[in-house]
Specification:
heterotrimer, A mainly alpha, B mainly alpha, C mainly alpha, B: mainly alpha, three-stranded mixed β-sheet, C: mainly alpha, 72% helix
Chain lengths: 96, 611, 479
């Protein structure tokens, strides 16, 4: 149970960070936090129910998260090269 | 009555000519293409006569359209029409070889001409209304093509277009009539309908309206009031066209329709009354308009209008065989009149204004007789063809109502007058132009010789019963038309009527002969002529009150359709506006989106939990 | 065979799009083979049966998403068969005659598969997929090769089409789940027609989508800009004309699946169709260029077809389908003809041109012929459909029929007026060459086909008649 609470706190921290930070790297970090919070809750549920399925899923998520990090950071680097900034407030190309 | 493939061949021959001349006409050249076209029409004529002698024929393709056969029928009525169309058509074809000599579109002309004959034969041979409609619109198209034959002149193309559009107004009536007949009877076969209606003692409610709708079609095709405006303008075409289409054949299609569908009209006196009225008004109108015209062909055109009115009167009073009788005699003398007009025009190098004619008696030793015979037959000189058929019409209208008889007699008087006006202005007096008139070649005069014989003698097949107990035509045609149930007039009345019409036409011819030879015409007459020249302003009336408003409204609709309904203004604009408003939600701030995401998740999960 | 015929144009089109060096000949051959396949299908067609769904030939089905009942199911009923032939013939003619970049031809071929799929799909979801996918090549043609104001036209076209399609998607699911059918297959859906309260709404969904593609007044507004902005060769217009499948879609899907909904909306549609017929013909009179004229003319024709179809009678249905097939051919041919004229005088407008006939007598005759087919002259292809629609509609509403058929007068007026302006009167244009051999071939094929349809409609109506009777039977009509 404690693990679930931890996971929730971790998720909340991540969400707070993603909402308040301006630097793309930090936003990205916060998102990773949320992701791992989800992983954590999966594992704890696995422990509670004694099923292996969730652990398998977690392994998958970790593997894919690694790839995702690579892509995400690559994007940030590319954006920095072009725009000389990583502040997400400056990147408003989608504004309607 | 035999079923034979030879029947569609009657139509096929001229159609073949149309295709061949249309494709290879230029290579065949002049005059071979003209002769080819003429011979094909002659072939149709001979084939038709042969089949008719064999007792008629029929032919059909079942379920040509679902429930509607493609059926043809050659009985006495359609047989007579085939003889008129193909026979007189052949003569006019031959004439046209001379008339169209040297025209750049020689082969094209004969290709159209053959097409017209084919369409007209479809019309008369049809035993099913939709099939008749094929011919019906086909002759309209042929007429359009031939009126606008010299298409580089705007006047001609305008006239052609007008003819087609006005015809289509009538065609709408025809179409709706077919719709009604189908809804009421479930068949459109003419003989099938006839059997159904004649066998039944019931009164079908649909018949009066169906008859009226078909009558609208007849009005359009036969240029009756109020759809008469196209016929005079149709004179823009070459003269053989006027002779063939706008005198002898196509315009009589309306009369033919009434005769063919007489079983519809016999039982509905209301509609027949209107047929009579329309015919009478047209007869008067045409006769009055004929006085003021200065174009040699337009005079004859208005006389055609008037004579068609006579035919409608005959059909309206129930004397269908008389109407067809007049169709036949009229075909002879009107074709003759047109073709002698054509010869005069030919002689004068294209001049059509009667004010620049006169004195042709001296220059045209053969055409003068053609013109004289034509004018006298039109005017109803006793013993000539026009006299007998017109007398038959007058007699039957007397049976209907003496007042009608009196009016038609007055119109017959006018007819005699204006036919003399035409003759006097063209052939008598001094020549008022500057050309050197010359007589037409034999290829043009010989058809006129034949037609002259017809115009002289054709009336003897339909003599009144007081002269010949049973004439040739009436029982023959009544085999195909539902005969009227009226009794003959008493012999004494009949003789008085014959005498009256003879006197009236003689008087009219003589008075016209004298009156129009005066150098200065009375003032009242010239005033009347001015109005008559403009056809009593019917065209102006239509243009001002119908055509122009319709055009203006089309422009208005066009603008409205562009502005209101389309793109940024209308529905598209609405969607665009909503989109623009929604786009403001897209601030571009990442945290805005993330917050939205989170709030949505919370709401969804919360809803799931609390539900 | 049906699968080959369906997918061949797409494959050929894609190949040609990415390897344009294959050239025009490749496109012609592909279109010709497709057409030949359609003739083979025609020759081998035998489907006897009287009820809808029983007379489908070449049926085949493979599950795509078996769980929800979506199949890759093809099959041709009589109407689908004839329209299939009409499409493949028209595409062949278009590819043959149009002077356009090779990629353009490739798009046309790609689009052909979509169109054929619409007629052959026997699964509602598959039908929907084809119905929507066809939009893509059509938009691409407009986007890549359209005129200066094409963006506006694209915008309008796309909005009308897409907005129309969404309600239809809802209806697609409604007829399956509310009707209780086990799958989206045509035959299953026919067994479970949707009735009750939802029927009106479900039909409305179809109605909006199909009315846009008919096009029916007042949802026709996308059509004039679409044609005005498309490439002057007329190929894209011809393809767009083929895309007007609304009548077929009503006939095959909307009406039999939601018959009670049809009855609820019948009156309104009949009224709009009758009004649209005369309205569009009237507006066409004021058109200043060929494409606008033809756009409105086709709205007018399709309204007549709709009038026949929504009479719910056998004749009306046969007439509507016949008219649809015929108008696909003659309207497309007319657009291509306009393209031929454009090639000579560089203008689609009426005003600066006069007396073209002097230089191009053969073209003059071809134009006359096509115009006459367009305005429904008996003996040519436009007439049987129009006439049967009239017979059907008259049984339901004489007055609306009268209003709608006022358009035959208006049609004569607008067609002949335009024709006179361009071809007749005193020649004002420089001498231009008459038809070349390529155009002669185009002309002869078109003329023969249109004559055949007009003079011997029986050849085609026998395939449509059982369908018409089946539709009439839905509403208790005997014939």
């Amino acid at each position: 149970m404690i693990w679930l609470i931890t996971s929730a706190l971790l998720f909340a921290t991540g969400a707070y960070g993603a909402l308040t930070r301006r630097t793309a790297i930090l936003v990205f970090l916060s998102i990773e936090l949320m992701l791992n919070a989800a992983n954590l809750s999966l594992i704890s549920f696995a422990k509670l129910t004694g099923s292996l399925d969730a652990q398998v899923v977690t392994l998958f998520v970790i593997a894919i998260a690694a790839a995702e990090v690579a892509v995400g950071l690559g994007l940030i680097v590319a954006i920095f090269r072009r725009r000389e900034t990583t502040s997400v407030d400056d990147l408003r190309g989608l504004r309607g | 009555m035999q079923t034979t493939i030879l029947l569609p061949l009657i139509i096929g021959l001229p159609f073949l000519g149309f295709v061949i001349l249309g494709l290879f006409g230029r290579r065949i050249g002049e005059p071979a293409s003209g002769w080819l076209a003429s011979l094909l029409v002659l072939g149709s004529f001979l084939l038709g006569v042969n089949l008719l002698a064999g007792g008629g024929a029929k032919w059909a393709v079942a379920d040509w359209l679902p429930g509607i056969p493609f059926s043809l029928l050659l009985d006495n009525l359609s047989g007579l029409m085939v003889m008129i169309v193909a026979g007189i058509g052949f003569l006019i074809h031959v004439y046209a070889i001379g008339y169209m000599h040297g025209d750049a579109g020689f082969s094209r002309f004969f290709s159209y001409f053959n097409f017209f004959i084919a369409a007209m034969l479809v019309l008369v041979l049809a035993d099913s209304f939709p099939v008749m409609f094929i011919g019906w619109e086909g002759v309209g198209l042929a007429s359009y093509l031939l009126i606008g034959f010299w298409y580089t002149d705007r006047v001609n193309t305008d006239s052609a277009r007008k003819a087609f559009i006005v015809n289509r107004i009538g065609d709408l009536g025809f179409l709706l009539g077919m719709g009604l007949l189908w809804a009421a009877f479930g068949t459109l076969s003419i003989s099938g309908l006839r059997e159904k209606i004649e066998a039944s003692t019931l009164i079908f409610q649909a018949i009066p309206l169906a008859a009226a709708l078909l009558f609208i079609g007849a009005i359009g095709k036969s240029a009756q009031v109020p759809l008469m405006v196209w016929l005079p303008d149709a004179m823009a075409g070459p003269t053989p066209v006027s002779a063939l289409i706008h005198a002898a054949t196509m315009v009589t299609a309306g009369v033919y329709l009434l005769a063919r569908a007489s079983f519809l009209y016999v039982g509905v006196p209301d509609v027949s009354f209107w047929v009579t009225m329309v015919g009478m008004v047209t007869a008067i109108y045409g006769a009055l308009c004929a006085f003021g015209q200065t174009d040699i062909k337009r005079i004859v055109a208005y006389s055609t209008l008037s004579q068609l009115g006579f035919m409608f009167v005959a059909a309206g009073v129930g004397a269908y065989w008389v109407a067809i009788f007049h169709v036949m005699t009229h075909a002879f003398f009107k074709a003759l009149l047109f073709m002698s007009s054509g010869s005069v025009i030919h002689a004068l190098g294209g001049e059509q204004d009667v004010r620049k004619m006169g004195g042709m008696w001296k220059y045209l030793p053969q055409t003068r007789w053609h013109g004289l015979i034509g004018a006298l037959a039109l005017g109803g000189l006793p013993l000539l063809s026009g006299f007998w058929s017109k007398d038959a019409i007058l007699a039957s209208s007397f049976e209907y109502s003496p007042l009608l008889w009196f009016i038609m007699l007055a119109v017959a008087f006018l007819t005699a007058l204006y036919s003399m006006r035409w003759f006097v202005l063209v052939f008598l007096g001094e020549y008022r132009g500057k050309e050197h008139p010359h007589e037409s070649p034999a290829v043009m005069t010989w058809p006129n010789h034949v037609l002259s014989i017809g115009a002289l003698l054709a009336g003897f097949v339909g003599l009144p019963y007081v002269i010949q107990e049973k004439n040739v035509l009436e029982p023959w045609l009544n085999a195909a038309i539902r005969p009227p149930e009226a009794e003959h007039l008493a012999a004494g009345t009949e003789w008085i009527l014959i005498l009256a019409s003879a006197l009236v036409s003689l008087g009219g011819l003589y008075y016209g002969f004298r009156f129009f030879q005066q150098r200065v015409l009375p003032k009242w007459f010239t005033n009347f002529q001015t109005a008559s020249l403009h056809s009593f302003y019917a065209d102006n009336f239509y243009n001002t009150y119908i055509v122009n408003p319709l055009k203006a409204f089309a422009d208005f609709l066009f603008g409205a359709d562009n502005g209101l309904l389309r793109g940024f203004g209308g529905l598209g604009g609405l969607v665009g506006g909503i989109g623009g408003w929604l786009a403001r939600l897209e601030t571009g701030y990442l945290r805005f989106y993330v917050a939205g995401l989170l709030i949505a998740v919370v709401l969804l999960v919360g809803w799931g939990v609390l539900r | 065979m049906i699968h080959v015929g369906l997918w061949l144009p797409l494959i050929a089109g894609l190949l040609l799009f990415f390897v344009p060096t294959l050239g025009r000949i490749f496109a012609i051959v592909a279109a010709a083979v497709t057409f030949i396949i359609s003739l083979v299908l025609f020759a081998g067609y035998n489907a006897a049966g009287t009820a809808l769904g029983q007379h489908i030939a070449y049926a085949s089905q493979t599950p795509l998403l078996q769980e929800v009942g979506v199949y890759y199911a093809l099959g041709l009923d009589g109407a689908g068969l004839l329209l299939w032939i009409a499409v493949s013939l028209t595409v062949l003619l278009g590819v043959w005659i149009a002077d356009v970049p090779v990629r353009f031809l490739a798009l046309a071929l790609t689009m052909e598969t979509g169109l054929l799929g619409i007629f052959a799909a026997d699964d509602l979801v598959l039908f929907y997929a084809f119905f929507e996918a066809t939009l893509i090549p059509s938009l691409m043609m407009l986007w890549l090769y359209g005129g200066a104001e094409r963006l506006r036209a694209i915008y309008t076209f796309a909005i009308f089409t897409l907005v129309g399609s969404l309600p239809m998607l809802a209806s697609v699911f409604a007829v399956r789940y509310l009707g209780g059918s086990p799958s989206f297959l045509y035959s299953d859906l026919l067994q479970h027609p949707l009735g009750g309260a939802g029927a009106g709404w479900a039909f409305l969904g179809f109605l909006i989508a199909f009315a846009v593609k008919t096009p029916m007044f007042p949802l026709h507004a996308w059509l004039p800009p679409f044609h005005q902005q498309n490439h002057p060769s007329g190929l894209a217009d011809a393809m767009g004309t083929l895309y007007k499948v609304g009548i077929f879609a009503f006939f095959k899907w909307a009406i039999p699946l939601v018959p009670s909904g049809f009855q609820q909306w019948q009156g309104l549609v009949l009224f709009l169709a009758a009004f649209g017929a005369i309205y569009a013909a009237w507006v066409a009179f004021s058109a200043k260029d060929w494409k606008t004229l033809l756009a409105y003319a086709s709205v007018s024709h399709m309204s007549i077809g709709l009038l026949g179809l929504f009479s719910g009678t056998s004749q009306g249905t046969v007439g509507a389908l016949f008219l649809l097939g015929a108008s696909m051919i003659y309207s497309s041919a007319m657009f291509l003809f306009v393209g031929i004229v454009y090639k000579r005088i560089g203008s689609l407008e009426f005003t600066p041109v006069r007396g073209l006939a002097k230089h191009t007598p053969a073209l003059y005759v071809l134009g006359m012929f096509l115009l006459m087919a367009t305005i429904g002259l008996p003996g040519l292809s436009g007439f049987p459909g129009e006439f049967l629609a009239l017979l059907g509609a008259y049984q339901v509403s004489p007055w609306l029929t009268f209003i709608a058929f006022l358009s035959v007068i208006a049609a004569a007026a607008f067609a002949l007026t335009a024709y006179q302006k361009v071809f007749q009167e005193v020649p004002q244009t420089q001498a231009v060459p008459d038809m070349n051999s390529r155009e002669w071939i185009f002309a002869s094929v078109t003329v023969v086909v249109l004559l055949l349809m007009g003079l011997y409609p029986k050849l085609f109506t026998v395939y449509l008649e059982p369908l018409g009777k089946a539709i009439a039977a839905l509403f208790g009509g005997a014939a």
